[in-house]
Amino acid sequence: MTTGSLESGEFAAVPSQLGTSRFGRPLHVIPRVTSTNDVARSLAEDGAGEGTAVLALEQSGGRGRLGRSWASPAGGLYLSVILRPSLPVLLWPVLSLAAAVGSAEGIEAAAGMPVKLKWPNDLLVDARKVGGILLDSGAGFAVAGIGINVGASPGTLPEGAVSIDVALAPLARAVLQHLESAI
Fold it and tell me: Bridge-partner residues for 134, per DSSP?
């Protein structure tokens, strides 16, 4: 199975096939960004609604927890979703766990392989990191950022990381569907 590219038009039908009521509506697909979380944060600050999503196939400045760099080679799935939680702010950290559960279930549905969670935000396949979650927040919103290694050559990933071989559009759909169910 091959991974997709934006040029192939693979993502054109994603919104109409989502099966979600909020997540991925709208879906902003951008070939390359500094960070999908930065784009989503800007949209949230401008009033974008819950479920607005930003999807990219490459990030030049992806980041993880504690400001760590996140390797974001071309062809991966980098997705951020705006949340407008009704929970008290003190409980917002549970959103990161819910995003991890939804992402793991989405990978399992699209790729047919078991995914385990490693506290607090890692997604593991065969005990190696396939993805991660980053929760950012601002006044009245949170952004759940998800990075999943897809179709990457072993030499392009950090030690201890792994990539999956799955078509990107079905993976994006499955992750958005399961995220909406989990959050």
Answer: 145
Q: What is the pLDDT of residues 10-40, one digit of tens each?
A: 666 666 777 899 999 999 998 889 899 999 9
**Residue spans per domain, the chain:** 23-182
Buried b (16+ CB within 10 A) or exposed e, 116-150: eeeeebbbbbeeebbbbbbbbbeeebbbbbbbbbb
**What is the tens place of the pLDDT at every residue in 98-110?**
999 999 999 999 9
- Site of tokens 């909020």: 22
CB atoms within 10 A of CB 97: 16
Angle at 9 between CA 8 and CA 10, to 5 degrees: 90
- Cα(46)–Cα(120) distance, integer angstroms: 29
Tokens of 91: 């409980």
- How many angstroms from the chain centroid is the CA of residue 120? 15
The CATH number that domain 23-182 falls under is 3.30.930.10
Where is 117: in which H helix or E strand? strand 116-118
Q: Pairing state of beta strands 27-33 and 53-59?
A: parallel
Provide the token pair at 169: 């559009």
